[in-house]
Amino acid sequence: MRTAVVGVTLVALATGGCRSTVGAERGRARAPREPAPDRATFFGASRCAGAHFALCEDFESGALDPAVWTVSGAPPVVDTEEAARGTHALHIRLTGKGASTISESKTFPAPNDTYYGRVFVYFKSLPRPTPSFRYAHWTIVAASGAGVTGEVRLGGQLQDGINRFGVGTDSRDDPAGTGDWTNPDRDPGPDGAPPVVPTGRWLCLEWMHDGAHQQTRFWWDGVPHPSLATTLTTPHQGRAGVPFKLPAFTDLWLGWFEYQPTDQPFELWLDEIAVDGARVGCAS
Questions:
Q1: Which residues contact residue 215 at a Cβ distance below 8 angstroms, ignoring those fewer than 6 apart?
Q2: Which tens digits make up the pLDDT trace of 165-180?
Q3: What is the largest CA-CA distance in the chain?
Q4: Does residue 5 contact residue 200 with C-beta atoms inside 8 Å?
Q5: Cα separation, 226 vs 197, whole angstroms
Q6: What are the residues facing 186 on neighbouring strands?
Q7: Are 113 and 10 in contact (CB under 8 A)?
Q8: For the chain, which residues make up each domain, given as ranges?
């Protein structure tokens, strides 16, 4: 693993899970979808050494640097079974409800309380529907901080038999918070329907958390998903009348957290994590 940390501070974990906001995005104007970048430019050798990001983690040394990363839950391992770049990636295996995460606080506070993240993720298995298990909520990225309770989450939900990405938060019982909610991906894919989260292939996921302007953004394989962007006035469940305020960010975790009781096994890899003050991109 090569870990590059430049300048600035991300360590938090919370529980919870909520069904998606049904109909929350109805009526929202959709921007024309940008053409997808060439995925062939995403992969190959590690690019951390020459990237000059605030943090770039390629796992190529074969171990986590404890000076940078804090492990919570079931310990993940660095191995060579799958890799988006180079030869190593972080391997997470967990059976049932629970977490396996790494967190860092080296890149915060971010200038203007704004940062961008990028991670490559490979899902080998995700929640699957059974007669007794029809709904699941899971998170792979979450950030938190001061001034607002709860996490700003990126993850997904098993609902109606399929997994789709979603964003949201869980401010629990804080009366000043928005509660527990997740807005699902409603952006049309090539077939016109919101895309299902695939297994068995590497995905490039990017996000922006802008606390100065109270907004977030999400990109999948370089393509923006406006339905997964948020502002102060984004419709949501939970406490629907409370504006969705962002914290003064202090920490970030990546990994896996599934919130519903189950005996199903979950498995995924993460690779080439990058955090910076500007958008990272999938080819950088």
A1: 208, 229, 230, 231, 232, 246
A2: 999 999 878 888 899 9
A3: 50
A4: no
A5: 17
A6: none
A7: no
A8: 8-20+69-268
